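Trying the structure run again after the queue cleared.
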Amino acid sequence: MIVTAILPILFTYLSTSTAPNAALDPFPLYAPRELQFNNHLDQTSNEADSSRNLTNLMVARQNYLLSIVGGSLEEQVAFGFADLTNRLRYAESYASDRRQEIKQLMKEIRHLWELIQHNDTDKTVSNLNSNDVTAKDPKKPLSLTSDEYMHLPSVFSLLPFLHQTWKHNSISPAFRIAADSMRTVRFVFGIPTVKRKVESYLVGTLQNLIGNLSPTEQSQACFVVLIAETDIDFVRKTAEQITSQFQLEVNSGLIEIISPPASYYPDMSTLRETLGDTMERVKWRSKQNLDFAYLMMYCKSKGIYYVQIEDDIITKPSYLTQMQTFVTKQTGLSKDWMVLDFCSLGFIGKLFKSADLSQLILFFVMFYNDKPIDWLLDNFVQTKVCRFDMDNNSCKKQKQKIWISHKPSLFQHIGTHSSLRGKIQKLKDKGFGRVKLFVPHANPIAKSTYTSLKECLIRSGNPEHPSDIIQNATLQVKSTHTGDKFIDLGPFADGIVSALIPSEMNPIGEIYMMVQDVHTTTIDHSS
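Done. Tokens:
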């Protein structure tokens, strides 16, 4: 019975570990990975599709590179070297993780073989992940390889409460929507979002992030939204809002949605009060640290670079091309940069090489109870480059060599109400410049006319004030041949109405918005 269990485990493992996009990699250094049975054995490859996808990928990549570096041979060579350097580091990091997992797999297979040889029928496959390799026969101890004497630290070592449940997938996403797990891109953006008491900025943030990308840029990006709540009803509701607004982007793999299981978080009542903060604030920032670490664990194998942002930001047009150009420039100047900073506020717009995320994950998890996430990042960089006896100015100069800021800023914080209860956050990045809330257009001379319409879309609100939207209202139209009679096309939902217009109503004489309630906020709208 045990013999027949080995091959399915081996084949299942190999089929899932070869792709550089496992759903979640919680093992930045090493930890015993629970082997999971899944449906990958049923999947077959299609060589024609693979060849076609590869060709499309190469063409898209070539167009993308030309859009960044232009036609200069010198620029193309410089970009090529910088790009290959970081891609190589990413591949080496991924290969290192897989080697550790293969070693663990071989250890477990040897353990099974020893059980078979000793006719130990009391042990089952559920014991595979045990680190207890003491002899089953006192007269004939089990042999150990040199690697098996050593137990390297992992996330489980730093979060001991996970040991009780990790065999039950305690950190695998409890909820996940992802179209293509094999999709590997250049830039992965991590967007954590939580319940907000006043208003949510998430949908507006996603609209701005995607709207400021060209189709070619979109092929190089992936946005991973972490709904960092354990209330499954809230998780599903938020996911439905995203999928209803961004169905094409979700289907293409541009947007992924995940949510951690409740078992990933500790008992918050056991946290220590630090830095003189209230317990409420300690809980808030400690959970935020764990949320960021979770996002990094999920995203580290999905792309060459990882960008941490928040759910209440806006961007500059073509921000991704500007980021890639800056990455190329800095890699050409020095391969040792640690952080490329595209926003001066908090942890917004911080870009890392995915190959460096393992260090950050362990550091954040190690001190999650002690300091806010942006302080921990500063401490991490300072530890890497500053001597203990170095003065502040000298240390700052050393940190600026590996933590490099881009001017002007490409991301701006727009949220006012923090996810921490009662906290008002009015910080703005002055390097971003003014936000264009209205885009002027040519205003033609007015004249009376009638036209045929197929569909009408009205969207209200703006990036800085997403709550200033039309509510409790209905869109109505009147035909030129129905007298004064209006018909309802549909109500506004979340400030938006989109409706098809019946052909028999054309030509349209008037479009009318019937507001059924008093609005307490200013209404900004565009159609």
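The longest strand covers residues 185-193. Worth checking whether this holds up in the mutant runs.
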